[in-house]
Amino acid sequence: MSMWPSLQEHNLEKSGSALVLVAALLVRWLVSLHSYSGMSTPPMFGDFEAQRHWMELTFHLPVADWYFYDLQYWGLDYPPLTAYVSYFFGYVAQFVEPELVALKASRGYETATGKVFMRVSVLVCDLVVFMPSLLLLAKGIYKRQWALRMEFLMLVLLQPAFILIDHGHFQYNNVSLGFTTLSVACILQDYEVLGSIFFSCALNFKQMALYYAPAITFYLVAKCLYRPNFFLHFAKLGAAVIGSFAVLWLPLCASGLSECGTTIAQMLHRVFPIARGLFEDKVANVWCCVDLFWKLRHRVAPQHLVYLWSACTPTTLEATHVCCRVARPQPLLAFCRPSSTSCAAVRLACGSSSRSSTRPCRSSSCRSKCMRKQFSFRCSP
């Protein structure tokens, strides 16, 4: 029998929630006590050293030099928000252990206290971004089902891949995943503009958030299509995305407008390293899997690999589109027009058994409920 109903019966929901978070933090800390990839292995020392190096790089150098500095030794190749987070932790490290972020002199720095600082920085990101975002998402999905909410949190927070990559190997994927989760939580609660801002933050922290971009983009555009003021809502979403990118990219122009274009172009070149080939060693994607059996890089020129990727990506997206077209959801939103029906008809169309009201469906919540039902279909096999 699950322990969650028992805790709920004794009004110990807060204690149960704290138990989940403490258990998740404990497992993360135990994993972080182990070594990491590249430890004591010169000359590059692994991703742990890369993240530490970015802290000292962003702290000591002007913004215009971040994406140009010593590219052969862990040159910065993530979007600006990653650089800002690195700067923040580098600033804190200057007070805690200055040797950790001593530019050039600290390469391969692996003291016990330095490792603790780095490990704690990942835990801080979990506590500030990832865990709160999961709590909000769980509340949105399981509004009055506290036991299911706790089970959901346990499943996600103890997911081995999250823990091993961030707290074992050493990364800050929890920030990007946290912003993506916040975006989904907001969108499910009909705060699409806020969700767009959070997803823009995810994209600007790690370019791998682009994996989720097609689903989120098409979902938001589809919701716009089912609104009477399509162009206004679409313009709001566009303004939110463009404004978010502008705010996050603006510091790159701190050295002046004359250098702004060059800095942004270099940042994009580092973030999307097409010139270095479609993929690099140890990157887990389909191209690396194919490379095990058929050496793409030895048989196909890098520019041709880019063309191949450009053809494959829209093809796979179209396959998903065809799948969802087969489902053919019923046009339930037509029932939500205030001039033609009542809320009773809307409830009936949206699958509700209540027929007690005959008031016109003028409320946004009524239309939103119908819209959520509209998008709840599954793809047929």
Description:
The chain is an all-alpha fold and 381 residues long. Helices cover 65% and strands 0% of the residues. The protein has 17 helices and no strands. The longest helix is centred in the first third of the chain and has 30 residues, at 112-141. It is globular. Residues 328-381 have low confidence and may be disordered.
The secondary-structure element order is HHHHHHHHHHHHHHHHH
Instruction: Classify the helix fraction into a percent range.
Output: 55-70%
Summed over residues and divided by their number, the pLDDT gives a mean of 81
The shape is globular
Low-pLDDT runs of 5+ residues are 328-381
The secondary-structure class comes to mainly alpha
Q: Treating each run of at least 4 consecutive H or I residues as one helix, how many helices?
A: 17
